[in-house]
Specification:
Chain lengths: 443, 443
Amino acid sequence: MKTITGVVQKETLELSEILAYHVSGEKVKVNGAVHVIRSMGDVAFVMLRKREGLLQCVWTEEETSFDIHLLREGDTVEVCGILSDETRAPHGIEVRIRSVKILSEPAAPLPLPVGKWKLNTSLEARLNMRPVALRNIRERAIFKVQEGICRGFRDFLNGQGFTEIHTPKLCAKGAEGGSNMFRLDYFSKKAVLAQSPQFYKQMMTGVFDRVYEVAPVFRAEKHSTSRHLNEYTSLDFEMGYIDGFEDIMGMETGFLQYTMKLLAEEYENELSILKIKLPETGMIPAVRFTDAKQQASERYGRPIRDPYDLEPEEEQLIGRYYKETCGSDFVFVTHYPAKKRPFYAMDDPEDPKYTLSFDLLFGGMEITTGGQRIHDYQMLLDKIAARNMETDGMESYLSAFKSGMMPHGGIGIGLERLTMKLIGAENVREATLFPRDLGRLEP
Amino acid sequence: MKTITGVVQKETLELSEILAYHVSGEKVKVNGAVHVIRSMGDVAFVMLRKREGLLQCVWTEEETSFDIHLLREGDTVEVCGILSDETRAPHGIEVRIRSVKILSEPAAPLPLPVGKWKLNTSLEARLNMRPVALRNIRERAIFKVQEGICRGFRDFLNGQGFTEIHTPKLCAKGAEGGSNMFRLDYFSKKAVLAQSPQFYKQMMTGVFDRVYEVAPVFRAEKHSTSRHLNEYTSLDFEMGYIDGFEDIMGMETGFLQYTMKLLAEEYENELSILKIKLPETGMIPAVRFTDAKQQASERYGRPIRDPYDLEPEEEQLIGRYYKETCGSDFVFVTHYPAKKRPFYAMDDPEDPKYTLSFDLLFGGMEITTGGQRIHDYQMLLDKIAARNMETDGMESYLSAFKSGMMPHGGIGIGLERLTMKLIGAENVREATLFPRDLGRLEP
């Protein structure tokens, strides 16, 4: 019998350990993937790709008996060598190679020059070769930033008294209804994939007051745009005991402020690789739907066609308006028309044609839909009836309200869209590890 | 135009704020759900359910003009009153009611006595009425503990240089193969729901060295047991540059150690409600599959029937053996027979009938499967061929190996099973917010 007592400490060093605890002249052991080899005859520079960044290793014939010609890009290796200051190398250090142990080798030359700074390949090709393309330093930095957003979301909400929940994705009925649901057989029953955790997070608000979830959602929409995915990661929260929907916008703004600070402090390296300038989040304008529409139409001379919804171009113009007039990358568009919002949206008591709901635009694109929900059982039943909807399959959802529910509301943020706008990408697929769209189910 | 500047500060206080910053005699404002009302004529005790626990409010006719008969269990309210020390009340405090504002009311009496300490209702009934049943203090405490496990998993792995990833649940092909996949139409294609993020986390190990994911997985197994779910939350990690599969077991042990400490420090209240005694994780025995089988058979006189797998009762006996002989609630069972492990499992070079893989048993039940994976492209192709499997649909997965992959391995932990064992439940559904099984697709 053996025993396992905890994390096995490694002799190999990570970049942050080297930079914090080691000095020029010390012997170090490191591992990594051979990212690029630049051979100049007597001397060769071997750039190792490590999880925290690149580390330059230098080979010279005098210093090692290792044959540099045995080394190929794509190998993974363990290198022993002498740490040395070198201002021209990444992080100002390099390792002068004494010995190399090859851990694994590729079976063929790499299909993409992942060692280049920027992959000059079409998005389509990069997505097709995603497992390899992501080894490029810039490509992978995007998903490190995405990690930071999720960390920010959870850490901030944990600090605000929220509880994390995990709700089912296999459901008997969709939250939003409509035709955009993936359907499947669930043993002898019919099931759909969750379009959102809406019903569940509302029910759980009755339990924990404040809840959040980070999980996939599924939309069988036949969109083929640069903004739509058929599966994406939704950052959802729902909070009880609100005094108005401003509380919800305030909480989202708090999340953005917290997360931008976290990114600035702990993801400096990735921000620099991607040349990201973090947006200001100190003060976000909130403007009524009808006003925003009017303002954008007047300023940019674009006629209003659909009075009940925002066309993508209108979102862009509203974003532009608030960038130009307030310097803000974000704008809350509030009081959406009731007919374009789901049944559970709270109507504005001052004018029930509108709702106490909002979208958050970032760089002229919707990244969030949120709002106050109906919490009164009878009001909910009345609204369902007024829409000629059935309550079949909603019994559990309704039971939460029948047993009493505090005033509440919440939001859903599209993680990939938020990432996309933050990194300044033109296509949401750039910010999705393995995107799913009308044509793409692989890799 | 309005502006939103961040989290809206509330006048209402949470329990932790009261306990930290307020003293007897102070006027306070609190909100909550009316959990229980105990009326004794002149005096009534109103127990408020708040997210951090229960708060006793005391009504007397002399102190307020509010008519206590207007209040019902299930109401949500805002209470103003005077904070007062009271050793017999939860947390040693109570609020002497001055005024009450009713925020919402239930439309009918509650279908379950959620205010009772323990719901004496069948599991089936509690699951049917889940949105209301979870308002019971003991029921909801389970999911606060579950939150703690997820926090522990992420925080620990973030500290160990792992990157969080989000991989698709709609896939063209399942990772494990076999018949236990949910199938659906994906536009003009055929799709399956992910049984595990196995392929994706391996591919991403080639990118980030160490990755993890907390996400739903789907198994169309026709099991109907107290241990199986058809959708569950999987805690997955995968790590590169391992020297052996002990590194993986060490990392999992590190996670358990970190998480038990986190629970002890920050979830004291829930542990106490649920009477949980946290298991020791300082040293976990690791024993070979064949030895464990033999030991349990000899000690408890149970003949070995299936030499290639562990029957549930054998897992229990192995768990019991190591509890009795080592005092350990956990045991790693290592070197599973190759024929019962997936193609990507690394065979033991000393005896390829076995693999460098393991299960972790907790309280005699498997909560984790893990192991070292094959990292060499040709070895992987050979194993696929030896099993008469097709590489169709695995091109992307294989491309990661073709382009070079370090030695690596990882694990998947069933979150609900780990929670179940930790709280000492007999059925995994107790530890699942909204379980999905052969008969249950709602709520």
